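Saturday, quiet lab. Running sequence design on the structure tokens for the scaffold JK sent over.
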């Protein structure tokens, strides 16, 4: 078997507990249908405890594609530049002879020292990370997508984003069971799929690396027909949240900030009002729409998988399915990818090896992180993991199993300066550089350390939904201390080590790896 093809599928804002394969394993009846993802899970290995190491989109994708924790790549928020010195997956693939193609986006702002301040890339949310060849870009400003829609004969409205309003002259923006104004034939998910098939057919069987990105189930939460009506609100799980937004906000100053400032318009095109005041019916409808968007992606993936089958490339292709981050979906009275709750950070990861899969259909409970994807791909293709990389290859899990020295906790970070709606540093009265948190979480406890705000500590066995902060409980003082030490040790052991293995001496420059 010749290892030659890699398909990296990166969806946007798909949280881990919306994976039917995991639901069945946990004894839950799936409330959505994803037959093509189910196939991938049957033929590959599904990771139950997988997290993005940071949010939102730009930082998360920087970690995914550099293998670095947020504390090392420092692209801490959307529109914050990524230092050009960091090696990324695209550049690393070029070094071993691959021309890495990318469909979608990476939400990357270039290093201003590498270009002019007048560079148009500084006027948009993000651009394509250096090293990748764009074969189906979404940015800047979704021009590629809207141009494709217009070229195919669909008349765009004056405000072209109004295609994501619900159908009907008198429809009210918000959680809705009405379809969007754009038919599925011209949806963004169809656009990305068409670009993928065009690229793959152009390769004509030659080896490829393809980053296939999808915008969904990212907001706005409205789906094209028939996906808008595929699921019923009453069949969706109820949100996990305190009895009121005020009760939730009392847990921590950062929680209060977000509950006070979430805007519906960021999630429903044209909507107004507070996102924290959605009632249970609206949340269930939002979740039904979210599931419809997921099933649309699954149908699109089915077309890509069918092409790989038809051309005999399925068994020669490493396929990795993941998301950049999760989505609160009304849990804890929150929307989006913010804060410190698992809903924002736990994401899917499914890996199907080429050829025979000895762990096909199984679920791995070991702790994996988004920074592990880059070294996994490079090792599979015969390359080396860059020394600076914080992640580790997951290939042992596809073979002999979890290494004896594998991590025993999950780690993730959030830098909340200038994020989303306003400037949190003002409401919590912090400097920008103090607006950060990190999380250490295992199967028993979760510790949230803030640079300049009170910590949080949760007993996950007794309180799996993280309502009861025990950080100030004397009975837990020793555990809080232990987990704070874990956080400190984690940061110390992952300080930048790009050059720390070099030594100079009488024999000249030497290296040592241990």
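Result came back. Writing it out in full:
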């Amino acid at each position: 078997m010749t290892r030659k093809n890699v398909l990296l599928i990166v969806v946007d804002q798909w949280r881990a507990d919306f994976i039917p394969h995991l639901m069945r394993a946990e004894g839950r009846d799936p409330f959505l249908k994803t037959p093509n993802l189910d196939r991938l899970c049957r033929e590959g290995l599904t990771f139950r405890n997988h997290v993005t190491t940071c949010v939102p989109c730009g930082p998360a994708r920087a970690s995914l594609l550099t293998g670095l924790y947020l504390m090392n790549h420092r692209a801490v928020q959307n529109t914050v530049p990524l230092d050009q010195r960091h090696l990324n997956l695209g550049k690393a693939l070029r070094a071993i002879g691959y021309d890495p193609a990318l469909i979608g986006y990476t939400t990357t702002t270039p290093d201003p020292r590498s270009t002019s301040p007048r560079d148009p890339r500084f006027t948009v949310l993000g651009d394509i990370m250096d090293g990748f060849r764009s074969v189906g870009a979404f940015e800047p400003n979704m021009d590629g997508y809207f141009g494709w829609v217009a070229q195919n004969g669909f008349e765009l409205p004056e405000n072209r984003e109004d295609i994501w309003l619900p159908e009907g002259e008198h429809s009210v923006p918000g959680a809705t069971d009405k379809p969007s104004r754009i038919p599925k034939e011209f949806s963004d998910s169809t656009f990305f799929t068409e670009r993928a098939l065009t690229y793959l057919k152009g390769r004509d069987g030659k080896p490829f690396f393809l980053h296939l990105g999808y915008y969904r189930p990212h907001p706005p939460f409205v789906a094209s027909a028939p996906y808008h009506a595929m699921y019923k609100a009453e069949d969706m799980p109820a949100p996990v949240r305190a009895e009121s937004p005020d009760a939730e906000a009392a847990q921590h100053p950062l929680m209060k900030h977000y509950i006070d400032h979430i805007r519906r318009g960021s999630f429903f095109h044209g909507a107004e009002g507070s996102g924290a005041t959605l009632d249970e019916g609206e949340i269930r409808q939002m979740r039904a729409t979210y599931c419809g968007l997921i099933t649309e992606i699954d149908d699109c993936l089915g077309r890509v998988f069918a092409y790989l089958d038809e051309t005999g490339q399925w068994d020669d292709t490493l396929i990795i399915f993941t998301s950049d981050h999760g989505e609160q979906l009304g849990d804890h009275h929150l929307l989006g990818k913010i804060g410190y709750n698992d809903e924002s950070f736990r994401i899917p990861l499914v890996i199907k090896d080429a050829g025979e899969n000895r762990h096909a259909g199984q679920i791995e409970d070991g702790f994996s992180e988004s920074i592990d994807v880059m070294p996994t791909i490079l090792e599979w293709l015969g390359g080396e993991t860059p020394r600076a990389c914080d992640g580790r290859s997951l290939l042992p899990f596809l073979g002999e199993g979890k290494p004896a020295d594998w991590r025993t906790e999950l780690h993730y970070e959030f830098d909340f300066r200038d994020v989303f709606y306003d400037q949190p540093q003002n409401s919590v009265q912090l400097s920008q550089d103090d607006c950060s948190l990190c999380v250490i979480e295992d199967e028993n406890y979760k510790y949230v350390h803030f640079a300049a705000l009170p910590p949080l500590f949760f007993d996950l066995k007794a309180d799996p939904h993280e309502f009861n902060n025990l950080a100030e409980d004397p009975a837990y003082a020793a555990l809080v201390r232990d987990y704070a030490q874990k956080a400190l040790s984690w940061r110390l052991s992952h300080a930048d080590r790009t050059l720390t293995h070099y030594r100079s001496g009488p024999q000249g420059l030497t290296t040592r790896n241990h």
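Notes for JK: The domain at 5-471 is CATH 3.40.720.10 (Alkaline Phosphatase, subunit A). The first helix runs from residue 20 to 25. Ask whether to fix the surface positions before the next round.
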